[in-house]
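Hello Y.,

Per our agreement to keep a running log of every chain we model this quarter, I'm adding this entry. I've kept the format consistent with earlier entries: sequence first, then predicted structure.
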Amino acid sequence: MRIYILSSGKYGGRVVNNLVEHGMASNIVGMEDYPEDLPEFIDDFSKYIPQRLSPADLILSVGLSGDINMIVPEVARKTGAKSAIIPIYGPEQMPPGLQQEIIESAPDVRIVFPKPFCSLEPVGDAPIDEFATHFGKPVLFIKSDHFIKKVEVLRGAPCGSTDYIAKGLWSTPEGEAELTATHKLNNYPCNASTVKDHIVGDTNMHLASYQIKEAVKRALGFAVKSAVVDPETCNPSQCQEECIKHCPQVLIGLDTITLQEDGLNSHEKKAGIDPATCGYCEICIKECPLDAIEIKTDKFEL
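Predicted structure for the entry above:
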């Protein structure tokens, strides 16, 4: 797979370096680096399009903020690429209107906007899926016996944080691994924005922490903390399913909260929360008009 990279700033550099360190140097057919102080609004994009472009399969735009991302469709056209990844690390970097404009400018190119980059999973597009096999939403293998004895990264975040976190988990008590992973992500440090994204109701940094916590939970086979619905209090007929509509994880495409058949009455459905993907952000608790949700600390088998 041939990758052409459009990069800017420390975040862009960090991603590029991580790809190279993981053996992707031969896949990178070209790269253009842009200054971070470009105008937010750009009328003429032509002067920013690289002069020398090699044929590519995938365009990767990392660290570019604002209108400069509009060059992606033209770079894809000139390189022959039919796939592109533009990760979103903050609300100010990629407003919804700009995202839609980019999509409409390249109807024959599959463009994905993972929010954040470490939430990327296969989407049914060959180049994107090949990339997502190695980089994207973290997947871990953990061997433990009350304490973590071994951690192997099966798929790492593109920024390289997963390798750092994996090393920091060694010798950690199983029950503390979720929280430790979050602390290590912050220490790395995570470059995702701490500004609240009003589309999802949470920050991109928090979303990134939910992804690595999920990786730890799935590798261990259990979660130690989660939002839990009281089935006796939950009654979707008396609400607007606020918990589902406001869950940040649901809003980036996960099935963290769903309506499920009531075990006692198959004709009724109740909200159910997946402890593997729950980031226990407490937003669902605040939004539920029936006070049917609470955070519980327990061992939730997955």
